[in-house]
Design goal:
Order of helices and strands: EHHHHHEHEEEHHHEHEEHEHEHEHHH
Number of domains: 2
Radius of gyration: 24 Å
Strand content: 5-15%
Largest sheet: 5 strands, parallel
CATH topology of the largest domain: Rossmann fold
Strand order of the largest sheet: 3-6-9-2-10
CATH superfamily of the largest domain: P-loop containing nucleotide triphosphate hydrolases
C-alpha cells in the first residue's frame, strides 16, 4: 500500500458536531462543577447534560475505579469514604466531580449508557456541592425568602435539606463558628449522601481575610473540614470527594496553608488520581470524535507510516547495523501509533490545539 492510497482521515474519523461547527471556546474545556450544579444555562451542554457528558467522556481505568468505589460506599459497602482527587496536570479532577454529580443526580437518564451499567446504583442520593471558586466567604449567599448563608456549613446544610437541615447549624452559621461533630452527624446520617468539594484552598485563602475575634474564618473552615472528614468516615452510606487545588504542581498563594490543609485531612482520606499521563490521548480522542474508524483502517495507516519511516531511514543508512536499527525504530513507531500514546501533557492545553487541527 502506498501513502497516496490511504483514505483521508476525514473519511474515517468523525468529529462531534460541536467540534465541526467550531462552537467551543477555551472556557468550554474547563469543567465548572458549580455551574453544573446550578444548572447555569451558560454552562456548555457537554457538561450540563448528563447523557451528552458521558457520551463525550472517556472512562479511564482510574476514573472508573473512583466512580465504582464512591457508588459502592454510597450503597452501604465497605471502602474509603473520603477521597482527595489529585492530578499532575490540569483537567480530570473537576471532570471526575461532575461525573459523580451526574451519576448521583441523574442515574435514571443514564441507564442506556453501556459504560455505566456495571457501576453500583445507591438509589436516590442527597448531593451537596461546595465550590471554592463560586462561594464567597465575605458575602455568603442570600436565599430568596430564606436565610443568609455565611459559611460552608450553612451552605452544606441548606443544600442537603433546606430549612429543616439548616436549623441544625443556624447558630454556628450566623456566628461563623465550625459546628461540632454531633451536629454534622445529625445532618449527614440517613439516606445516601455525597459531598463534592472543589478547589477548597481558594475558599480557605479568601477566608483568611475575615477576622473572628482572635482567629479568622479560615481557621474555622479548617476545623470544619477536619470534623467533616471524621464524620463522613463513620457514615454507613456517605462519601466525600474533594480537591484542594487545580493540580499538584500548581503553586498555591500560601504553600504553608496548602500543607496544613493536606495534613489535616491526610489521616482520613485516600488520594486518587483519576487521569494519568498515559490516558491523555484517549481522553482527547473521546472528546473530539464520535468514532475513530474501524481497526483495520487504523492498522493500515500505522503500517504505512512505519514503512515510510523505514524507507527514509534505510535510504540514508550507512551500514547494515544502521539499517537494522531503522527496521526496529519503524516497528516501534507502528506500535506507538496503534497504542495512541502521548507524553504527559496538560489536557486543557492539548484539547483546544487539537480541536483547531481537526476543524481545519
Amino acid at each position: 500500500m502506498s501513502a497516496y492510497r490511504l483514505r483521508p482521515w476525514t473519511e474515517v474519523a468523525v468529529p462531534h458536531e460541536d467540534i465541526l461547527r467550531g462552537e467551543l471556546e477555551m472556557a468550554t474545556y474547563a469543567a465548572d462543577l458549580g455551574a453544573v450544579a446550578r444548572g447555569d444555562p451558560k454552562c456548555h451542554r457537554v457538561y450540563r447534560d448528563p447523557v451528552v457528558f458521558f457520551h463525550a467522556t472517556y472512562l479511564t481505568t482510574a476514573l472508573r475505579s473512583v466512580l465504582r468505589d464512591v457508588l459502592h460506599v454510597l450503597s452501604g459497602g465497605a471502602g474509603d469514604r473520603v477521597l482527595q482527587l489529585r492530578t499532575p496536570f490540569g483537567g480530570g479532577k473537576t471532570h471526575t466531580l461532575v461525573a459523580l454529580y451526574h451519576l448521583a443526580r441523574a442515574r435514571a437518564a443514564l441507564r442506556d449508557q453501556a459504560d455505566l451499567t456495571a457501576l453500583p446504583d445507591p438509589g436516590p442520593t442527597r448531593v451537596a456541592v461546595l465550590s471554592g471558586v463560586d462561594l464567597d466567604p465575605t458575602v455568603g449567599r442570600r436565599i430568596d425568602g430564606g436565610p443568609h448563608l455565611r459559611t460552608l456549613w450553612g451552605e452544606l446544610a441548606w443544600q442537603l435539606g433546606g430549612p429543616e437541615a439548616y436549623e441544625l447549624v443556624r447558630e454556628q452559621d450566623a456566628a461563623r463558628a465550625a459546628p461540632g461533630g454531633d451536629a454534622l452527624r445529625r445532618l449527614l446520617e440517613g439516606p445516601p449522601t455525597l459531598l463534592l468539594l472543589d478547589e477548597v484552598l481558594i475558599y480557605v485563602e479568601n477566608a483568611k481575610a475575615i477576622p473572628l475575634g482572635d482567629t479568622t474564618l479560615a481557621r474555622q473552615v479548617m476545623v470544619f473540614l477536619q470534623r467533616l472528614t471524621e464524620v463522613v468516615r463513620g457514615l454507613d452510606r456517605g462519601a466525600m470527594v474533594y480537591s484542594l487545588q487545580a493540580s499538584v504542581h500548581e503553586a498555591a498563594r500560601d504553600e504553608s496553608l496548602l500543607a496544613e490543609l493536606d495534613h489535616l485531612v491526610t489521616r482520613i482520606d485516600a488520594k486518587r488520581e483519576p487521569v494519568s499521563g498515559d490516558d491523555v490521548m484517549r481522553v482527547v480522542q473521546r472528546r473530539l470524535f464520535q468514532q475513530l474508524g474501524d481497526p483495520d483502517t487504523r492498522r493500515a495507516v500505522a503500517a504505512e507510516y512505519a514503512a515510510l519511516a523505514r524507507r527514509l531511514r534505510e535510504a540514508t543508512a550507512g551500514s547494515a547495523a544502521e539499517r537494522a536499527d531503522s527496521a526496529h525504530e519503524a516497528e516501534q513507531l507502528e506500535q506507538r501509533i496503534l497504542a495512541r500514546t502521548i507524553k504527559r501533557a496538560r489536557i486543557l492545553g492539548l484539547l483546544p490545539f487539537t480541536e483547531k487541527l481537526v476543524r481545519k
